[in-house]
Amino acid sequence: MYCEAKKGEDNLLSRIFLRAIRKNKKYNLKVKEIVLGRKFTYVMTEESLGIAFNPLLEPPDSSLILEDKTIEDLVCLVWSHPTLSSIALAAINAASSLWLEDNKDKVLWNADITKLIPSGNIAVIGYLEKEVKKLIDKGSEVTVYEFDRDHLRDAMKEGIKVKYGYQLPIDVNKYDAFVITGASLVYPEILPILKNNSYKVMIGPTSSFFPCIADELNINVLGGSKIVDIEKVSKLIKAGFGFKALTRYVQKWTWLGKSVISDWNH
């Protein structure tokens, strides 16, 4: 198997991804196309499209593009290289999109996820402009950790306290809760946060994966986006557009962990 050849099962996230796709075998489809756009990567099957943040590095292996692959072949590559992580995330999201079609009642649609982020000393992993402003307005002390220099600069311009993402392992025990962009999963430096028992909210189009993955990662709230117009989204990604251009062609969803469901209902 491709995973074994690439030793892709040697980290926490690849093992979790593989368990998820093997548990949901009906969604392990043949990959039709892989595209690396300026902002997003996408993986397309005959029935679905999954997208993920693209770190803009050349893939180390051309066989990914030239040879036939299934979703399972791709998901095991997470954390072996930033671009391969992006492809793996897009692949698991493509499969998860089909799961959502069959399980629409298992998630909330178009909910305001910021209502599920507690006040306190909050670390935001990846700059989420709107969410950060709402948290500050609620009285939270917010620190943004960023791996992307442009996003780091944007947060600094807004007067927000920022740190480089690589400082996360040092600061992991300083916060009451973490708000994490799905894009952060491209980088294995996020691992200490995933292992931490603090309250965690993960949001963004890159985190549009099976809720069972969030459960294994001890994520309390998961927010993703389901693509409702595959043709338009794929064209926009090929043309280099970011998420603002895609929003009218996706539907946002939220999954609540067991510990959060009762609070939401009340």
Describe the structure.
By secondary structure, the chain is of the alpha/beta class. It has two domains: 2-103, Enolase-like, domain 1 (2-Layer Sandwich), CATH 3.30.390; 108-265, Rossmann fold. It is built from 13 helices and eleven strands. The chain has helices at residues 2-6, 12-23, 63-66, 71-75, 82-102, 129-137, 149-157, 168-171, 191-195, 211-216, 230-238, 243-246, 258-265, and strands at residues 31-36, 40-45, 49-53, 108-109, 121-125, 141-146, 161-164, 177-181, 199-203, 221-227, 250-256. Strands 4-11-10-9-8-5-6-7 form an eight-stranded mixed beta sheet. A three-stranded antiparallel beta sheet has the order 1-2-3. Residues 4-9 have low confidence and may be disordered.
